[in-house]
Design goal:
By secondary structure, this protein is of the alpha+beta class. It has 3 domains: about 120 residues, Beta-Lactamase (2-Layer Sandwich), CATH 3.30.450.20; about 70 residues; about 150 residues, Histidine kinase-like ATPase, C-terminal domain (Heat Shock Protein 90), CATH 3.30.565.10. Helix content is about 45%, strand content about 25%. The strands form 3 sheets. A 5-stranded antiparallel beta sheet has the order 2-1-5-4-3, with helices on both faces. It has a 5-stranded mixed beta sheet with strand order 7-9-10-12-11. Strands 6-8 form a two-stranded antiparallel sheet. A hairpin with a 2-residue loop joins strand 9 and strand 10. The structure holds adenosine-5'-diphosphate. This is histidine kinase. Keywords: ATP-binding, Kinase, Nucleotide-binding, Phosphoprotein, Transferase, Two-component regulatory system.
Length: about 375
C-alpha cells in the first residue's frame, strides 16, 4: 500500500468506472488504515506497509505475526493472542483493541484490529482485516471513565453513611416496636441499596475500561454467597420468588465482592426481564475442577441476534418489551470482564418468549 494510487482524471470527471483496487488504495492511505492477511494453517502473516508503520516498524522491514505481538503491551498480549487464536479456531470475526509500544513515544499507541474469515478453496482459509489507530478515541474514553469513576466515588461515600444511619434507626424502631417507622425505613433502605448497586456498577465500569479490574482472591463458600445474594435481591426487588434448585457445597477461590456483583447483576436482570409471578431458579454444581452457576428465569427471553452482543458495553436488546425497562447496558459487560479475569466463562441460552438461562463457570481446586 505504499504505491500511490493513480486514478485517471478523465474516468473520474466522467464518472466512468475506474478500478476498485485504486479506490481502495487511495481510501486506505488517506484514512491511515492498514490491511493484513494471515494463512489460518501456516500463520504466515502479510501486513501492508501501513500496518507495519502502525505497529512501529519501517515499511521495508519484515514483520511476522510474532513481531506484531511482541509490540503489544505485556499485560494485553495474552488477551490479544487468545482473541486471534479463538477467531481462527471458531472461524469467527475478530475485534480487539490493544496498546502497542512505539520506540520514542512516551504513551502507548492504541490500535484496533478487525478481521474476518475467508476460505478460497477446501484447503486454504485466511483471516484478513484492517488495523486502525484509535489512540485519540481511547484517550477520550479513558477521560470519560475517569470522570464517571470520580463522580461515582463521591456519590458512594454519603450513600454508604446514609445506609448505616437507616440501619441504626431501624434497630431503634424495632426496640420501640414502632412498625410504621420500621416499614418506612425498610423502604428507604431498599432504595439506598438499589442506588449503591448502580453506583458500584458505574465504579466497576470505569475500572474495567481503564483495564483495572484487580482481583482480591480469597476462599469462600459459594453456596453461602448465593443464598446471601438471593435474600438481598428478594429484599430489594420484593417481587419474584427466587429459589435454589440445587447447590453443591463448593469452596471457591475468587474475589468474593466481584462474584457477588456478578450474582447481583444476573439475579436482578432475571427479575427485571420477567413478570412478577414467575419463578427464578439458581443452581450451583461442581464437576471435576469446574464450578458452574446457572440462573434460570421464565421471562421474555433473548433473540439469537442479541445473544452474541449482550456482553459488550452499552448493548441493550431493542424490543417492544425492553424499551420500557430502564438500564445502562453495562451489567453483563461487567459480569463477563469479572468472569474472564477469573479464567472462567459466561454465556446465555434462551428461547424468546419462554425465558433465559445465564451460566458462568469458575475454575476450582
Ligand atoms: P441493562 O439491564 O442495564 O440494560 P445488562 O448489561 O445487564 O444491562 O443487560 C444487557 C441487555 O441484555 C438488557 O438490556 C436486556 O436486553 C438483556 N438481558 C439481560 N438479562 C436478561 C434476561 N434475564 N432476560 C432477557 N433479557 C435480558
Amino acid at each position: 500500500m505504499t504505491d500511490k494510487a493513480t486514478i485517471n482524471q478523465h474516468d473520474f470527471d466522467t464518472n466512468e468506472k475506474f478500478p476498485e483496487l485504486e479506490i481502495a488504495k487511495m481510501a486506505l492511505d488517506s484514512a491511515n488504515v492498514g490491511i493484513w492477511v494471515m494463512d489460518a494453517a501456516t500463520r504466515k502473516f502479510l501486513p501492508s506497509s501501513r500496518t507495519k508503520i502502525l505497529f512501529g516498524f519501517l515499511p521495508e522491514e519484515e514483520m511476522s505475526f510474532e513481531d506484531a505481538l511482541s509490540k503489544v503491551a505485556d499485560k494485553d498480549s495474552g488477551l490479544f493472542l487468545i482473541t486471534v487464536e479463538n477467531a481462527i479456531k471458531d472461524r469467527s470475526n475478530l475485534y480487539v483493541e490493544c496498546p502497542v509500544r512505539i520506540p520514542g513515544e512516551k504513551k502507548h499507541r492504541w490500535l484496533s484490529i478487525t478481521g474476518g474469515f475467508s476460505t478460497t478453496d477446501e484447503k486454504n482459509s485466511y483471516i484478513s482485516g484492517i488495523v486502525v489507530d484509535i489512540t485519540e478515541k481511547k484517550q477520550n474514553d479513558l477521560r470519560r471513565s475517569k470522570f464517571i469513576g470520580m463522580v461515582s466515588h463521591e456519590l458512594k461515600t454519603p450513600l454508604t453513611a446514609l445506609k448505616a444511619y437507616i440501619q441504626m434507626l431501624n434497630n431503634w424502631a424495632k426496640k420501640q416496636k414502632d412498625s410504621f417507622t420500621m416499614g418506612a425505613l425498610s423502604k428507604a433502605e431498599k432504595q439506598v441499596k438499589k442506588m449503591l448497586n448502580m453506583i458500584n456498577s458505574l465504579l466497576n465500569l470505569s475500572g474495567a475500561e481503564a483495564g483495572k479490574i484487580h482481583l482480591n482472591k480469597q476462599e469462600f463458600a459459594m453456596d453461602e454467597l448465593i443464598r446471601e445474594v438471593i435474600e438481598e435481591t428478594m429484599f430489594i426487588t420484593s417481587s419474584h420468588n427466587i429459589t435454589v434448585a440445587h447447590c453443591d457445597r463448593v469452596i471457591a477461590n475468587a474475589d468474593r465482592d466481584k462474584i457477588e456483583q456478578v450474582l447481583v447483576n444476573l439475579l436482578s436482570n432475571a427479575a427485571k426481564y420477567s413478570s412478577k409471578d414467575k419463578t427464578i431458579e439458581v443452581t450451583c454444581t461442581k464437576e471435576e475442577n469446574i464450578l458452574t452457576v446457572s440462573i434460570l428465569d421464565q421471562g421474555m427471553g433473548i433473540s439469537k441476534k442479541d445473544m452474541d452482543k449482550l456482553f459488550t458495553p452499552h448493548y441493550r436488546a431493542e424490543t417492544k418489551e425492553t424499551e420500557k425497562i430502564a438500564g445502562f447496558g453495562i451489567g453483563l459487560y461487567l459480569c463477563s470482564e469479572i468472569i474472564n479475569r477469573h479464567q472462567g466463562k459466561i454465556w446465555v441460552e434462551s428461547v424468546p418468549g419462554q425465558g433465559s438461562i445465564f451460566k458462568f463457570t469458575l475454575p476450582v481446586n
